[in-house]
Amino acid sequence: MEAKLADSETTVFDVMKDKDEVWNRIVQKYGLKNYKLEDLGTWDFLHQTLNREFDELTLVQKVVNAGFHEQVQTDVLFADFFDTLKNLKIIPEYEDKGLLQASQ
To answer: In whole angstroms, what separates CA 39 from the centre of its chain?
Structure first.
């Protein structure tokens, strides 16, 4: 199958706008707190974050050159964040397949 570009830009909001019922089923299935999907995130913000048009490596180097030398491991940061969401019953438990390693 040959890949084809979309006729128009699709945003994360476009993909998520009709997923309330799917989210409600996930909440019920896993006994999560009953948050509305739109209360958990801003799809436009996520879209902009995933579609940045600037060079992040250069930006990080500028920050280091300005004297900010402390760094956080991205994988540890995300693992801790998702563990917090899981513990607050906002997202379901997940099976750690070694991809996310929380800090000790």
So the answer is: 14
| Residues 37-62: b if buried by 16+ CB within 10 A, e if exposed | beeeeebeeebeeeeeeeeeeeeeee
∠ CA(27), CA(93), CA(84), 5° rounding? 95
Computed over every residue of the chain, the mean pLDDT equals 84
Q: What residues have CB less than 8 Å from 50, skipping those under 6 apart?
A: 12
Digit-coded pLDDT (tens) for 25-43: 999 999 999 999 888 888 8
Structure tokens at 22: 């799917």
Question: Taking the domains of the chain in order of start, what are their residue ranges?
Answer: 12-53, 55-104
Count of CA atoms in the C-beta half-sphere (13 A) of 16: 16
